[in-house]
Design a protein that fits this description.
Number of helices: 12
Strand order of the largest sheet: 3-2-1-4-5-6-18-19
Bound molecules: nicotinamide-adenine-dinucleotide
Strand content: 15-25%
Distance between the termini: 10 Å
Largest sheet: 8 strands, mixed
Helix content: 25-40%
Amino acid sequence: MIVGVPRESFPGERRVALVPAVIPSLTKAGFEVAVETGAGAEAGYPDREYTAKGARILPERAEVFRAADVVVQVLCYGSNDKTGKDDLPLLRRDQTLIGFLRPLGSLETINEIAGRGVTSFSVELMPRTTRAQSMDALSSMATICGYKAVVTAADTLPRIFPMLTTAAGTITPGRVLVIGAGVAGLQAIATARRLGAVASAYDLRPAAKEQVLSLGGRFVELPLETRDAEDASGYAKAQDESFYQRQRELLARVVAESDVVITAAVIPGKKPPALVTREMVAGMASGSVIVDLAAERGGNCELTRGGEKIVEHGVTIIGWFNLASTVPYHASQMYARNIGAFLLHLAKDGKLHVSRDDDIVRETLLTHRGELVNARVREFFSLPAPEAQSTGGER
Ligand SMILES: NC(=O)c1ccc[n+]([C@@H]2O[C@H](COP(=O)([O-])OP(=O)(O)OC[C@H]3O[C@@H](n4cnc5c(N)ncnc54)[C@H](O)[C@@H]3O)[C@@H](O)[C@H]2O)c1
């Protein structure tokens, strides 16, 4: 089984899907690794480090696809909507593709991938279970994004975060508000606390409160009915517009008192709720900063401009995409560990096994033998349930 690692082709992408440190565990399980030359260079992993761990370096992208039984990428076609399509003709029926595929994005794109016959696994669909934790790339990238959001805010804010008592007087601590305390939000709280800020957070899932408190954050209680806020997978459920309206009214005061607002409130497959309005931005002190981690999908702040940093009412609003790629060394290391664990999970006797009796396989398997087979994705696109599926079988 040859695992192929092409260089990421999305403009500005600096991550790589496998790092050298993961290779020995794959080799031990019977895999060989073929890497496109320069694939890890931008993340801080030169070719020679891959070679030292036993990987082969191939000079051409097409060669990597040709050699590979399994292609591993960070942004596959689907999540790479700029250059990903160029990879389509390189994929084939007896091949497996693993990476971010944006399964709830465009049905047309998924059908194109299915049309190549490739067996594709979408890491976004990894179940949120203890057993799958080591393979959870969404959590890994969210961790990096939460950290980087705070560091970016600290770098932009004209104030410092920690409280200081000096001969030149006392400096009060920065106030950071996190809206959406999922994996990214919780890491943002932890990072803001480490920098000495007073961090508070709000989430509509009541379960988030304990996690926020355990990180030394304050939990913002809003008198809102949120009993039905969480689905069986632990994700937030979408609420109706009157709920969001009430939420905005209640959040306005807390936002006005904050120097930094990090928004990370999303619902899988839905446009993120608009939680910070123009009026709320205008109510913030001049020099305040908003980092909108939901920007890529439309943003939680009404004024966010996707991919840009703007100033409105004296408040800097950062809507950059793909923050994880700006920390490529550790983002790649974490992603590679997730992908390595997933490959080892699929491997048996030197072959990949697509056993749909296994929830990790069943839930991440997107396309197989020319079809979109994933039940959750089919339901999302209102397609009939997949036909009775065979279990077991190797590729
Ligand atoms: N292996 C595991 O058990 C595992 C792994 C990862 C995450 N999780 C859990 O899954 C859950 C989702 O995590 P995630 O980071 O993927 O979430 P996410 O990225 O889907 O959403 C981010 C956060 O936004 C919140 N949100 C949505 N709408 C909101 C609104 N209107 N107002 C305020 N907040 C809103 C969500 O509740 C969530 O906490 C969390 O409970 C997390 O701890 C479990």
